[in-house]
Design brief:
The protein is an alpha+beta fold and about 80 residues long. The chain has a single domain (about 1-75), classed as Phosphoribosylformylglycinamidine synthase subunit PurS (Mth169, Chain: A). It has helices at about 15-25, 50-65, and strands at about 1-10, 40-45, 70-75. A 3-stranded antiparallel β-sheet has the order 2-1-3, with helices on one face. The protein is elongated and about 50 Å long. Pathway: Purine metabolism; IMP biosynthesis via de novo pathway; 5-amino-1-(5-phospho-D-ribosyl)imidazole from N(2)-formyl-N(1)-(5-phospho-D-ribosyl)glycinamide: step 1/2. Part of the FGAM synthase complex composed of 1 PurL, 1 PurQ and 2 PurS subunits.
C-alpha cells in the first residue's frame, strides 16, 4: 500500500522559494505566471494494515510543521 502526503505552506505564510521561481519564470519570458507556491510530496510505502489515521499522526508529529504548513493524505 502507498500513501502520498502533499505538504504546502498555509495561505498567508511567505514563500520565498515560490517567489524565486516566479521571478525566474518571468526572466525566462513566461509572463503569464501570477503566483507560485512551492511545497513537497512525500511517498510512503506502507505495511499492510497501516491506517490513514496512522499516516495522519505521522504528519502531525514529523512530516509537516502544522504551525505554518497544511497537508493532504492520499492512500492508494
Amino acid at each position: 500500500m502507498k500513501a502520498t502526503v502533499t505538504v504546502m505552506l498555509k495561505p498567508g505564510v511567505l514563500d520565498p522559494q515560490g517567489e524565486a521561481v516566479k521571478s525566474a519564470l518571468g526572466a525566462m519570458g513566461f509572463d503569464g505566471v501570477e503566483g507560485v507556491r512551492q511545497g513537497k510530496v512525500i511517498e510512503l510505502d506502507l505495511a499492510p494494515g497501516t491506517t490513514e489515521a496512522q499516516v495522519t499522526d505521522m504528519c502531525e508529529k514529523l512530516l509537516a510543521n502544522t504551525v505554518i504548513e497544511s497537508y493532504r493524505v492520499e492512500i492508494a
